[in-house]
Fold these 3 entries.
Entry 1:
Amino acid sequence: MALPSTLYTFRIDLADQDRGHYDQLKLKLPCHPSETVERLVVRALAWCLFDSPDLKAGPDLSDHSESPLYEQDASGEIRHRIELGEPDPQRIKRASNRGTAVTVITYTPSAATWWKKQENALRAFAGVEVLAMPADAVSALAAELPRQVHWQVMVSERTLFVSDETGDSTEIQVTGLQERR
């Protein structure tokens, strides 16, 4: 029998100064047994970067047909896919060929090596943006993450300033490796 996912509840007070967007998010994100807490944290941070009424969470890690996060319009058409980690370029190509905007957010210690290997392939695809979050900052947020999370997140100039209810704060500088074209 498969192990169940662990449910994390995020209450996030979001102030995105880059977009002039302010929101109070209540996210219930399952952490699949094969998923790291770092990846879960990046899902929550990605939600902060791209928050909109059309943003949805993908089914789970066992369903590779959907992205972890995506924006879907009223007709049901997916217009923006958000991939996390070090996805296979063929997966990105399929989404790009459908005319869907794709954002890849990499956050692992091996991200620089992955980018070096995949850069030429990903640069060939239209509509693809690649962002990097520093692994050490993501790990700091993931360390001893409670199942009930309350963050204040301010986004300014592609930097996330994350504070928790204990007063601890972490700065996450999001680096653009490839801009969407």
Entry 2:
Amino acid sequence: MSRPITLPQKIFDYDFKLLSQTEAHPRTRIRLLALSHLQNHKNYKQVATYMQVDITSVKMWLYRFRDGGIEALQEKQRSGRKSKSYGLNEKISIAIKDMQDNKIGGRMTLTDIGQMLKSDFKLDYANPSSVRYLLTQLGLSWITSRSKHPKQDLKAQNLYKKLQTNSHRCPTCGHRLKQS
């Protein structure tokens, strides 16, 4: 039989199950659920089995909570290389929106955006999926609407939309007419 776990008294001050339901980060959510099981007097092995993690992870989470409180369970910034576009996100977003507004004929593609990033910002994204990931990070959609045709007439389009709302049609051309 395993040794009983001595839980810190402050573990009973929190409702870890409720906290896990409102937590956005999945790793932190798992830690909170594990402590919830420990609150319910489960042993390390049972909690590790429930959470599908190693038993040492469960012990570490409890030690971290014991030493640093609930803040110690939060996910920290991980090490690694910064993004190619680090610090340029706002400028890139504005440039992409300007490119869309100034595009004449056709649609803007990921390849077009990649070429613009290479020429204007010296960022070389070899793979279009990398450009798509960047657009997701910027909060932009890579699926765009059609650009404005150079010969479009906004007045004629608005008149056509107004005529479409009524049920009477023009006898010569078939367009719907405004009811008088």
Entry 3:
Amino acid sequence: MENSLLKDEKKVTRLIEDIAAAISKNDTQHFLNLTTWEVIYYDKDMDMATETMEAIELVPDNFIEITDIATTNIDLPLMKTFIDTAVATDSALQTALHDAVKGAKPFVNFKDVLAEKPAYQKKWYQYKEECYAEDAKKWLISYGILPA
């Protein structure tokens, strides 16, 4: 099957960004339309929910659900890796972040600690986006959409 997507680098980049965004959202379902290369966001509470799901069910071979990479536990391992690598030069911050992710509400605590260090906060969001983009690429490769 000819993959016209590969001929347009901007479309590939946009698709990776869209799938990375889908990975970061756990409150909705996401589907990749294999005809248009668009990521469709489905939320049962949205206005067009019934129509959206009916369109997906009408031609199910044209869609892949993105749920197998969008998990609620994806950020905690990323946070721990970020702490061990990107924050290695600031031992006080590294200790504070390690303590933050050990306790109750690790995500809130992590963000609160980083809020006091805007440069590291910016690095965190960049790091997280890069990891999500890498996961999106791996997902596309696993389905044969992008070459290995």
